[in-house]
Design brief:
3-stranded antiparallel β-sheet, Arc Repressor Mutant, subunit A, alpha+beta
């Protein structure tokens, strides 16, 4: 997996070890960095990695 890789909801859920339903909810609520292609959510791995770092530090960089 490369940092500029684009993940689907299924791939993101497996990567974060969360349910697909949770990934959809977080994306639709704007809680995850995401974008839509057509009607399908997509996620940049590099942005997800940064987001997880921010979550683990309480938003501090």
């Amino acid at each position: 997996m490369t940092d500029d890789e684009i993940l689907t909801v299924k791939e993101l859920a497996a990567y974060l070890k969360i349910a697909e339903k949770t990934a959809y909810r977080f994306a639709s609520e704007g809680r995850l960095p995401s974008f839509k292609v057509g009607g399908a959510w997509r996620f940049r791995k590099s942005e997800i990695d940064q987001w997880t770092k921010e979550q683990s530090t309480g938003g501090r960089k």
